[in-house]
Amino acid sequence: MTSPFDLSGKVAVVTGANTGIGQAIALALAAAGADIAAVGRTPAEDTVAKARALGRRAEIVSADLSTIEPVQRLADETVAKLGGLDILVNNAGIIRRADAVDFTEEDWDAVVDTNLKSVFFLCQAAGRHMIANGGGKIINIASMLTFQGGIRVPSYTASKSGIGGLTKLLANEWASKGVNVNAIAPGYIATNNTAALQADEVRNKSIVDRIPAGRWGDASDLGGAAVFLASRAADYVQGHILAVDGGWLAR
Ligand code: NDP
């Protein structure tokens, strides 16, 4: 009997796969057996090389997800390159910081277009393909700010709350069609995105003191949750937002 977490023969699209959480998830999926389409602005050469070293097929798909055209061609491009599309991980994301009273339209649009608009239209493009082929798994990368307000990150909070709602809506619409739509909400994870926070001694101490696990998460901490939600072990899991946060939200 094969493991319920076995992803052999599946094709996974992972956005923002060149670094951080996206790279860790891509490599965890590859280790579980999936072939990988590594999507992003920066070519994910290292990720593709490591996935191939695991014996998987892996391809770079170049796309700037802040614009709609590459988002809409991405599903077809993956099918053309790897022969299918079974798993979509919407991971690419950016953050802009400013007080709400000073927040600019440019910072609003940049974040919402990349973090939310692209997520919906990638789900739509991949979902059409999955529905036509009998099913699939979609995993959206949310945040603690899917549940909390945060401060000085209005467009980021709106985008990540939006991902929570969208995940539930798509789960409702597509559960009967064999497509599972779920999300992962990472806590404080040590990546390039959070390097400035880690470098600030005072902020860093206040963050670590508040995390019940007593440490920052590592990008590899997200791998197991992604493999689970991508696998047949999660066939009856729908519209769930799985926190991987060292207990932050439990506090
Ligand atoms: P990083 O900044 O390390 O990586 C972000 C990734 O997104 C990069 O691969 C980047 O590619 C890609 N990306 C950004 N903009 C675009 C775009 N327009 N088109 C294509 N790709 C793009 O971030 P993390 O790994 O930390 O974060 C990954 C996800 O996890 C994000 O959605 C983030 O919001 C979320 N998250 C992270 C947390 C953390 O503590 N780190 C906490 C909660 C959520 P490129 O290098 O080419 O720009």
TrEMBL record:
InterPro entries from the UniProt entry: 2-deoxy-D-gluc_3_DH (IPR011286), NAD(P)-bd_dom_sf (IPR036291), Sc_DH/Rdtase_CS (IPR020904), SDR_fam (IPR002347)
Keywords, ordered alphabetically: NAD, Oxidoreductase
Top-level division of the source organism's lineage: Bacteria
GO MF annotations in UniProt: 2-dehydro-3-deoxy-D-gluconate 5-dehydrogenase activity; 2-deoxy-D-gluconate 3-dehydrogenase activity; NAD binding
Gene3D superfamilies: NAD(P)-binding Rossmann-like Domain
Entry's EC annotation: 1.1.1.127
Pfam families: adh_short_C2
EC top class named in words: oxidoreductase
Family: Belongs to the short-chain dehydrogenases/reductases (SDR) family.
Protein name (record): 2-dehydro-3-deoxy-D-gluconate 5-dehydrogenase
Organism: Sphingomonas desiccabilis
Gene name of the record: kduD
